[in-house]
Amino acid sequence: MVSTAAVKRALSALASRTDTATRPAVAVIDEADAARADLRRAAEFVDADGLDRLDEAIAAAEHAGNEGAAKRGREARAAFRRFREVAADSDLGGGGDCGGDDGDERSK
Which Pfam families match (predicted)? Predict the structure, then answer.
C-alpha cells in the first residue's frame, strides 16, 4: 500500500511544478513506487513509457544528491525487471499452450 507521505510528496511535487514538459524526479519515482503495488497500475506505468522516465528520474535524483529517492527508484526498477522476467517465463512454458490442437481440429 502507498504511504500517505509518498502521496503527499507526489502531489506537492506536481503542484509546485512549473515546467510541464518535464516531470520532477521524485514524482516519477513516487509514481513507479506506487505502481508496484497493483498489477494494472504497473502495466499502465510501463505503457506510458514509465521505465524510461524512471531511469531518467533515478539519474536526476542521483545528480541532485537525493539518495533516498534514487534508492527507491532503483528498487522500483528492479521490481519492474522482476515483473518482466516472470511474465517472460510464463509466456515460455507456464501453460501458455491451451490446446493448440483444437485449432487444427476446427480447420479440418
Answer: DUF7966
Task: Delimit the domains of the chain by residue range.
Answer: 4-81
pTM of the model: 0.62
Q: What is the 3-state composition of the chain as percent helix, strand, coil, each rounded to the nearest 5?
A: 75, 0, 25
CB-based contact 57:79 (threshold 8 Å): no
- Integer Cα distance of 10 and 94 in angstroms: 37
Q: Hey, is 66 helix, strand or coil?
A: coil
Rg of the chain over Cα atoms, rounded to whole angstroms, equals 19
Q: How confident is the model at residue 13 (pLDDT cuts 50, 70, 90)?
A: confident
Phi, psi of 39 (to 5 degrees): -60, -40
State the Cα–Cα distance between residues 75 and 79, nearest whole angstrom: 6
More confident residue, 102 or 61: 61
pLDDT (tens digit per residue) in 18-52:
555 445 899 999 999 999 999 899 999 999 999 99
